[in-house]
Design goal:
12 strands, TIM Barrel, 251 residues, single chain, eight-stranded parallel beta barrel, alpha/beta
């Protein structure tokens, strides 16, 4: 059985790690280069770096900061934020990223996924889906979760898989930052419908929440931010607790 993955996320604004609740009320959470090194040494399986205002500010991800982070870690590293062209991906992979995450640009131009998968391989392409429950439907949002689209989350997930995405990073905006648990129903629906891995994000606050999203939500990986940034949960302690609950972990 494949091991499940624990992934810290660095949400970056102005070169600093930030964290909020439901995508707003951001507070400073530290230096991303220092944090990346700590997480790499602490047993994290992968690291995700999201430049959360790159799309809103119509600019590319901070390539030099990506290079500094990559030089300090020895685990797989996914980078997202403002990626809309093959040239952006080349720059980031050359700077040390292993995978890139696209969101708003892929919604605007779905063929971007096809082009990136053809050029770099599906294993490099993560599609991030920010979803909010609105009037009985799970709806895709773009631009850092600030703009609702007309896309339903599950239909979009199936389309990005068809277009060559190698993985989906599913964030529940309703659960984000609440520490009250992941969106397990939506995660399970996506994980059991698709054949590519699904990373659950938004709401992780305790080992029980991770156990729930791996068992009930059928997630392949679970991502969290503030509980790791503010030392509320130790990654290795979390993995040992999950392993004791018969969830396969890399210890």
């Amino acid at each position: 059985m494949l091991t499940k993955r624990i992934i810290p996320c660095l949400d970056i604004k102005n070169g600093r790690t930030v964290k909020g609740i439901n995508f707003v009320s951001l507070v400073d959470a530290g230096d991303p280069v220092e944090q990346a090194a700590i997480y790499s040494d602490a047993g994290a399986d992968e690291l995700v770096f999201l430049d959360i205002t790159a799309t809103l500010e119509n600019r590319k991800t901070l390539v030099e900061l990506v290079r500094k982070v990559a030089s300090k870690i020895n685990i797989p590293f996914t980078v997202g934020g403002g990626i809309s062209q093959k040239e952006h991906v080349s720059e980031l992979l050359n700077a040390g990223a292993d995978k890139v995450s696209v969101n708003s640009a892929a919604v605007r131009d779905p063929q971007l996924i096809d082009r990136l998968a053809a050029s770099f391989g599906s294993q490099c392409i993560v599609v991030a889906i920010d979803s909010r429950y609105i009037e009985g439907h799970d709806i895709v949002h773009t631009h850092g979760g600030s703009r609702p689209t007309e896309l339903e989350t599950m239909a979009w997930a199936q389309e990005v898989e068809r277009r060559g995405a190698g993985e989906i990073l599913l964030t529940s905006m309703d659960h984000d930052g609440t520490k009250k648990g992941f969106a397990c129903d939506l995660t399970r629906k996506m994980s059991t419908t698709l054949t590519i891995p699904v990373i659950a994000s938004g709401g992780g606050g305790s080992a029980a929440h991770f156990e729930e999203v791996f068992n009930g939500g059928k997630a392949d990986a679970a991502l969290a931010a503030s509980i790791f940034h503010f030392h509320e949960v130790d990654i290795m302690d979390l993995k040992k607790e999950l392993q004791a609950a018969n969830i396969p972990m890399r210890i």
